[in-house]
Amino acid sequence: MKNGCLMLWLILLCFSSCKEKKPLPTDTGTTGTIHISVDETFKPIIEEQIRVFESSNPKAKIIAHYKSEAECWDDLMKDSTRMVIVTKKITQAESRYYADSIGIYPQGGILAYDAVALLLNRNEPDSVFEHEEVVQLLQGKSRLPYKPVFDGVKATSTVRYAIDSLLKGKPFNTSVITAAKTSSEVVEYIGNNKGYIGFVGVSWIGNPEDTAQLNSLKKVRIAWLPCDSCKDGSYTKPWQEEILTNRYPYTRGIYYVIKENHAGLGKSMVNFMKGDRGQLIFRRGYLVPAWRIFMMRETKLKLVKPLKQ
């Protein structure tokens, strides 16, 4: 009996020692290296966030992989990916699913607000569109002389937005869609070709202080869309104020989803993007911060002469 118990104890000890243990995290809030996956739509603004964060934390390294939104969600299952930045909020059901699969309960939240801009070649005569005209273009039923251009035909956040928000869940006609590989290629394609209308995140084209974007705007222009909340029937573009006030109709959020059980580099990066400096970067990128609304107000200054001492 004793021999049997001893044998069982040795087997359990061997099993527990052979069981693979997850390595302990090697990063802190200011040091180490982590990998994150980012929706390619947000590459310009997230690159700036990382640049400023790393300049303040020289021992920290954030390696971002820019890819389609679906690939970002897939990466959340990988041990090597600490965080994803996407256009969709994670649900409680999805968090439970990931917790059952990877043993960590992901948490997420909003960072800022973005918009989908419609681009035309600078030499096109039209730049004003009704909602129904955009829907008909995506369905291949439009009489307008334009074909849509996306950053792919599936799995990207811009494609998902078009299906979910513009077509209300109905698939679009892929036979009329021209697919580019990236958002920058969409902008370039529209600039070089007439007869197309491109769909891109506004961070690729809406920053008038970015030299590359200013050069692109010499070849393309942003379309006007109806302002749904305006009583005068006016039209609008994805300017910062129009996104903030929901006057521009094609808006969406920028969300983070993080899987980190310790006070590591991922949480530190999230806190930075939600803090004053990170929110100012979103604002300077002509997006709308979700955590800090930096209001501008007009003031009048009255100059007075100093009192004689």
Task: Summarize this structure briefly.
With 309 residues, the chain is α/β, with parallel strands linked by helices.
Number of DSSP strand runs: 12
- Can you give the helix content as a percent range? 25-40%
Stretches where pLDDT is under 50 for at least 5 consecutive residues are 15-19, 301-309
Find the CATH topology of the largest domain.
D-Maltodextrin-Binding Protein, domain 2
Report how far the terminal alpha carbons are from each other.
Answer: 103 Å
Q: For the report, how would you describe the main beta sheet?
A: 10 strands, mixed
Strand proportion, as a percent range, falls in 15-25%
Going by CATH, the architecture of the largest domain would be 3-Layer(aba) Sandwich
Q: Give average pLDDT, whole number.
A: 88
Query: In CATH's first tier, which class of the largest domain applies?
Result: Alpha Beta
Number of helices in the DSSP assignment: 11
Alpha carbon gyration radius: 24 Å
Given helix and strand content, the structural type is alpha/beta
CATH homologous superfamily of the largest domain, by name? Answer: Periplasmic binding protein-like II
Large-scale geometry: globular
Number of self-contained structural domains: 2
Order of helices and strands: HEHEHEHEHEHEHEHEEEHEHHE
Description:
The structure is a single chain. With 309 residues, the protein is an alpha/beta fold. It folds into two domains: 32-113 and 253-289, Periplasmic binding protein-like II (D-Maltodextrin-Binding Protein, domain 2, 3-Layer(aba) Sandwich); 114-252, D-Maltodextrin-Binding Protein, domain 2, CATH 3.40.190. It contains eleven helices and twelve strands. Strands 1, 2, 3, 4, 5, 6, 7, 8, 11 and 12 form a ten-stranded mixed sheet that branches. A hairpin with an 8-residue loop joins strand 9 and strand 10 (235-236). Helix 10 (265-274) crosses helix 11 (276-284). Mean pLDDT is 88; it is low at 15-19 and 301-309.
